[in-house]
């Protein structure tokens, strides 16, 4: 009976005012958010296996709560959305922490690798330096040993050949010549050459040696090329010695025009070494090369004079270390107290006159006589 209903039998008026007989109001009972977790929290869940009559069932207390409480779907969705959001936030946070850890580990590994590589490079450099020092020491020991052996051998040969009389013009200072039956032992600049007597002699020179055939008539061949350079001779003339067979000597007198062109001493010596290597390439028997000094000229200035001196010094060092190669200091013939002898040059100050060529060719004849008994 509704409490708002009025009228009727007076005997039942008391019932209308008694709340025990009122109907339950038809309104929703909202669940506080603090207690909404009881619908999905496992701590509020209890599983039933039998009902009140003893029949087996499969039911939980959550279903009873849903029976007695009306929960709107919007609240469930809100709860689900909040759960999803919190779960995503948690996952993102965990992912960020994981990425930070990975970056940190990667940095540590990178630093460790860099330190390791730096240590390896340092150790490698130290080992390399140690190996180079050892190789240099071994090289020096070998050179000292070879020098001693050559010295002992030369002294022995000198002692054994005391009765041998040298023929021809006197040898220059610092040169030792020992003549045997078929060989000539020529020693200069701490190098000894065992040369067959009368071996073929070739000349490769610039215009400064024009007319050499008249002064040294028994040359096998004289290749005189005016205004030539070392690079041009390497490209155009060195192949001619490929036809040489057996033991022979090649005298090279080139380089004056290279100095005049402005090349540095290092560049000139490098081209000379390349020319020597090309001449000697592919020969089974020794092909000796005699490198003449670059002659000073009256037209040289202070710069070119310095280039000539430095180049000739480097020629000497080059011939000392290369096999079957000897340096001929022809430049000294044209200096007196470090001054150029003007009487040996023509009026242009570049070319040798008759007297100058005579001095140069007589020196070459003397060298050829002592080196291989070439007359």
TrEMBL record:
Residues 50-91 are annotated as: Disordered. SUPFAM superfamilies: SGNH hydrolase. GO terms for biological process: rRNA processing. It catalyses: 1-O-hexadecyl-2-acetyl-sn-glycero-3-phosphocholine + H2O = 1-O-hexadecyl-sn-glycero-3-phosphocholine + acetate + H(+); 1-O-hexadecyl-2-acetyl-sn-glycero-3-phosphate + H2O = 1-O-hexadecyl-sn-glycero-3-phosphate + acetate + H(+); a 1-O-alkyl-2-acetyl-sn-glycero-3-phosphocholine + H2O = a 1-O-alkyl-sn-glycero-3-phosphocholine + acetate + H(+). This is 1-alkyl-2-acetylglycerophosphocholine esterase. InterPro entries: Esf1, SGNH_hydro, SGNH_hydro_sf. GO terms for molecular function: 1-alkyl-2-acetylglycerophosphocholine esterase activity; RNA binding. It comes from Gymnodraco acuticeps (Antarctic dragonfish). Its EC number is 3.1.1.47. It comes from the Eukaryota. It is an enzyme of class 3 (hydrolase). The lineage of its organism: Eukaryota, Metazoa, Chordata, Craniata, Vertebrata. Gene3D superfamilies: SGNH hydrolase (3.40.50.1110). Residues 243-358 form the SGNH hydrolase-type esterase domain. The gene is LOC117533556. Pfam families: Lipase_GDSL_2.
């Amino acid at each position: 009976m509704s409490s708002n209903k009025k009228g009727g039998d007076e005997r039942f008026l008391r019932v209308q005012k008694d709340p025990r007989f009122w109907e339950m109001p038809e309104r929703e009972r909202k669940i506080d958010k603090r207690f909404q977790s009881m619908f999905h929290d496992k701590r509020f869940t209890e599983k039933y296996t039998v009902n009140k009559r003893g029949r087996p069932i499969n039911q939980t207390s959550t279903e009873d709560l849903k029976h007695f409480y009306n929960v709107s779907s919007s609240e469930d969705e809100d709860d689900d959305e909040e759960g999803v959001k919190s779960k995503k936030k948690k996952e993102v946070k965990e992912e960020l922490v994981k990425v930070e850890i990975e970056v940190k580990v990667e940095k540590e590994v990178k630093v460790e690798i860099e330190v390791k590589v730096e240590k390896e490079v340092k150790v490698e450099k130290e080992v390399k330096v140690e190996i180079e020092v050892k190789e240099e020491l071994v090289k020096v020991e070998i050179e000292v040993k070879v020098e001693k052996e050559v010295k002992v051998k030369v002294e022995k040969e000198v002692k054994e050949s005391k009765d041998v009389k040298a023929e021809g013009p006197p040898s220059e200072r610092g040169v030792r010549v020992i003549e045997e039956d078929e060989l000539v032992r020529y020693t200069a600049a701490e190098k000894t050459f065992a040369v067959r007597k009368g071996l073929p002699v070739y000349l490769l020179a610039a215009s400064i040696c024009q007319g050499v055939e008249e002064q040294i008539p028994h040359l096998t061949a004289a290749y005189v090329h005016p205004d030539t350079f070392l690079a041009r001779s390497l490209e155009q003339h060195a192949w001619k010695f490929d036809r040489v067979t057996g033991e022979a000597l090649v005298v090279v007198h080139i380089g004056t025009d290279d100095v005049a062109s402005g090349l540095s001493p290092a560049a000139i010596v490098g081209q000379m070494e390349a020319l020597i290597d090309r001449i000697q390439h592919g020969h089974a028997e020794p092909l000796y090369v005699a490198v003449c000094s670059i002659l000073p000229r009256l037209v040289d200035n202070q710069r070119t004079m310095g280039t000539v001196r430095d180049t000739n010094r480097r020629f000497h060092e080059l011939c000392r270390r290369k096999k079957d190669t000897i340096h001929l200091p022809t430049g000294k013939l044209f200096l007196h107290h470090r001054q150029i002898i003007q009487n040996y040059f023509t009026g242009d100050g570049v070319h040798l006159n008759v007297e100058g060529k005579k001095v140069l060719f007589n020196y070459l004849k003397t060298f050829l006589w002592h080196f291989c008994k070439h007359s």
